[in-house]
Amino acid sequence: MHRPFRPTRFGPGRPDILGILAGASAAAALAMAILLPVETASADSEARFRPVDDPKVKAECGACHMAFPAGMLPAASWQRIMAGLPDHFGEDASLDDAARREIADWLVAGAARPGSRVAGGMPADGTVLRITDTPWWIREHRGEVRPGAFEDPKVGSKANCTACHRDAARGNFDDD
Amino acid sequence: MTRSRLLAPLAVTAALVAGTALAAGPRDTLLAGYAAAAGAPASAARGEAFFTATHAGGKPDTPSCTACHGTDPRSAGRTRAGKPIEPMAVSANPARFTDPDKVEKWFRRNCNSVLGRECSAAEKADVIAWLAGR
Fold first, then answer.
1. Which of A35, A110, A128, B72 has fewest C-beta within 10 Å?
2. Residue B69 has pLDDT above 50, yes or no
């Protein structure tokens, strides 16, 4: 999914049939992506996540940044984040206890499982708190993002996923 | 004097009070509440100075309200994570300061971030008074 599309790889002289085949398989892949429920797709797709569909989580976590999918961090990281909201990456994001517990439970329930693609290579103690500090995130963005893109005023922050991943709110980060 | 003669002026007064409260709306009620708690009328000028000042004691990334809200309250601001913040000026965003829970929540969080403490009732009243007139 992450290899750039290179139309020239087919070589000159016979682009038509291959072009049609490529188009057909792309259409088939697209149809699969649309037809497959997100949960199933996430098992084999590189960058599909269950989107945040809980209204409370969406409203509270999405107030300052995109509400990040629970599957982007392991449970221990979510627990530490939710225990430290008064200093949330340099800002007070405190919540009342009931809301905090409800959101923490939702995030932990959907967290990346130990040894999974996202949680792999991470210390199990929850010391990695930023999604952008996970080995998975770093690997996915290495060499794919033009230098300076995150500092672009239109982007502003690595946390601004939707600046590049247009369909991020629906859990689709495949568009790179 | 009959009972009805006694009650009639009371009923008129009650209707007037209720009418005023309705006309005033939730923002005026909220502002009046903060001013009453402060024990002094709100000052829009003080509110502007407070909103635009650089404060000490808060978190390093957020030394002022304007760090995220921007210097023109009629324009959108932006969070450090890159998400737009609707304008704070009531003229640009009439829903501002109409939900007391939301107002309290964000004053609590943002005053802690910017000043390292909660804001006083007087500071809240001043800021709302300024933004309500913008």
1. A35
2. yes
